[in-house]
Amino acid sequence: MKKILAITWKDLLELVRDTTALLLMLAAPLALTLAITFAFGAENGSPQAIPVIIVDLDDDELSHALIDVFKDEELADLLDPILVGDEETARQRVDDDDAAAAVIIPAAFTTQTFSPFLDSATRVPLTIYENPARSVSAGVVRSVVRQFTERVNTAHLAASVTIGQMLISSYLDPSSPGIDPEAIGQRSAEYAAHTDLITLLNETYQPNQPADEEEIEFTWMQYYAASMAILFLMFSMSSAANSILRERDAGTYGRLKVSPAYRREILGGKMLSTFMRGLLQMSVLIVSTRLLLDVHWGSTVDVILHTGLTVASLAALGLVIAAIVKTSEQASIAGTAIVLVLGVISGNYFPRTNFPDWLKAASAFSPSTLGIEGYQRLASGYRYINLPAIWVPLLTTAILLIVMALLGFRRNLK
Asked: Three-state DSSP class for 21?
């Protein structure tokens, strides 16, 4: 055991003395996490509201209702409505990329919408002026307006059918004193517009957690802190494992073999040093994001357990790559290719939510996938003992990959 620890200590000292490699391993993941998160327009990991310009040239009941939709409290985190007085200013602000879209409500919009004497060809349209550079955000604005117009159209149709049926059935006589068909139609439209036939109840599973602990919400900062850490961890583990081949090519491994140390002790020291490097890298990022960016990772004990298994699995993966190739150059190329592919299919660059089912299934047991999803669930309040779908595959993968690496090194390292 002393020989294994001595080899491990030697490798760690080499890392500490290599300032460039140390900065790349520790600082690069944190810098990239910040860059990607802020590229999403996030503040403290939460997406910013979509700026939308509204021009109200109608200033009547229907235009006020549409503005109220944009100002609804439920959409406060999604939309940031800005009222301006004229259409030209609104279009210019969209052209200047100050907003995702401009909603232009025409004059007499309310009157024309409910007028029985105008058809769709003569009514002035409700205009959405979109910013092509913000197509996704503009699509959200378009969806909000579309839902509003569909609700208005439904209410108008309901009122028209109600009045028509009452007239046909002689329940309503327009000539009778005190009867106002227009008022009846308006009340029918308002009732239809504000009455939901189906009530949707959204429920989300909340894991058991202490009563005094605040509810943790998803943040992009937390997601990318974990995903970028694991991505760079894969690169580091591949490079660290490749050091075995570099030492063989440089003759250092040959000198170790003639020393009073067995080959299994040499490989054990290399494996332990690779694991310790990965553990150091993950620990620095977790602690720094927690202290500097207030990123919530979950229970300390659970995070330590998950980090250990994640590092062990990815370190073993790097060792397998180094064990199955012939030269250090091949190991570098193969390691980079595998890391890039795993990064794409495992959700290191973006969540796997919209992946096709076959791709989700293919990447479900990737160490990178399990690492990211484990951190996400721990941040949501889960305890690690309640996540066997995460830690059992990680533990199994680590054991199998270590066995594969040992068998490969026995063949390649004579």
From this structure: helix
- Decide: 127 and 104 in contact? Cβ < 8 Å: yes
Angle between helix 19-39 and helix 263-293 axes, rounded to 10 deg: 40
The pLDDT confidence band at residue 113, using thresholds 50, 70 and 90, is confident
Q: Are 390 and 377 in contact (CB under 8 A)?
A: yes
- Cβ atoms within 10 Å, residue 32: 16
Number of domains in the chain: 2
Report which DSSP code applies to 156: H
Q: Is 198 exposed, middle or buried (0-12, 13-18, 19+ CB in 10 A)?
A: exposed
Question: Pick from 341, 338, 313: which is nearest to 325 by CA?
Answer: 338
* Angle, alpha carbons 320-326-330 (nearest 5°): 80
Q: Which two tokens stand for residue 172?
A: 């309503």
Same structural domain, 70 and 135: yes
Inter-residue contact 229 to 282 (CB < 8 Å): yes
Nearest to 223 by CA among 368, 354, 33: 33
For 312, what's the count of Cα atoms within 13 Å in the CB-facing half-sphere? 18
Strand order in the sheet with 101-105: 79-84, 50-56, 101-105, 127-130
Does the structure show a pLDDT above 80 at 386? yes
Q: Angle at Cα 83 formed by Cα 80 and Cα 88, nearest 5°?
A: 120
User: Within this chain, do residues 29 and 105 fall inside the same structural domain, yes or no?
Assistant: no
CA distance 69 to 64: 9
What is this structure's pTM? 0.61
- Three-class SS of residue 121? coil
Q: Are residues 11 and 95 in the same domain?
A: no
Per-residue pLDDT, 196: 47
Q: Is residue 7 part of a domain?
A: yes
Percent of the chain with pLDDT over 90: 16
Report helix, strand or coil for 132.
helix
Buried b (16+ CB within 10 A) or exposed e, 39-50: eeebeebbeeeb
State whether the Cα torsion 379-371-237-338 is positive or negative: negative
Cα 41 from Cα 109, distance rounded (Å): 35
Asked if residue 175 and residue 102 are part of one domain, the reply reads yes
**What pLDDT, in 10s, does the model give residues 50-85?**
899 999 998 888 888 889 989 988 888 788 999 998
What residue type is 377 in one-letter code? R
Q: Is residue 314 part of a domain?
A: yes
Per-residue model confidence as pLDDT tens digits over 289-323: 888 777 888 899 999 999 999 999 988 888 888 77
